[in-house]
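Weekly structure sync, notes
Attendees: PL (lead), two postdocs, one rotation student
Agenda item 3: pending single-chain targets
PL asked that the sequence for the first pending target be pasted directly into the notes so everyone works from the same version. It is reproduced below exactly as submitted, 226 residues in total.
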Amino acid sequence: MTASSVEQLRKDGNELFKCGDYEGALTAYTQALGLGATPQDQAILHRNRAACHLKLEDYDKAETEASKAIEKDGGDVKALYRRSQALEKLGRLDQAVLDLQRCVSLEPKNKVFQEALRNIAGQIQEKVSYMSSTDAKVEQMFQILLDPQEKGTEKKQKASQNLVVLAREDAGAEKIFRSNGVQLLQRLLDTGEPDLMLAALRTLVGICSEHQSRVKYKEIRNKRQN
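Predicted structure, written out during the meeting:
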């Protein structure tokens, strides 16, 4: 019963997926997994579940399911590709590249994999360039704001505005955290100058929004505290 039932449920899931019923397909694949599928079938079902989660834009679960498929079959190129897609959406480009490189090594002539790898490489290059540029900007803003000779100048006013804008961006917030920015913002608050205090508070509001850099910083901080 199990072998035929697993096969039938997998086929049912495939049909539902083709029709755009990703929740229904997910249910069918899950039921098949519960019937004692073979390791090979489990790999297929997990990678199919990953495809459903990608369509449903649940990228954490897509990564988890693809990883389970890869655990069963390290050469499952479809699972590797789906995990790379999930990792890209999650912003973990360095890990996505590793999966794509594996895909290309398994299927060197696959143009989809080649194009995806070029795309990821381009994104990483842009991110590195932007982060480098952002690092310089953040350092420059703090230098101007903490320079007593710039007190009350238009240059300092622009620097405070730019710092607030940068704090609202992932790259800017990450740099502020990495460059001891919270302590530097405390120094701005301690100046007692209304404009600088307001800039510091607005910057803190920006970096405390729910973007990735803040979440990662909190996780690291909590681990250190524990």
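Discussion points:
- DSSP finds twelve helices and no strands in the chain.
- The chain has two domains: 2-108, 131-225.
Action: rotation student to compare against the earlier draft before next sync.
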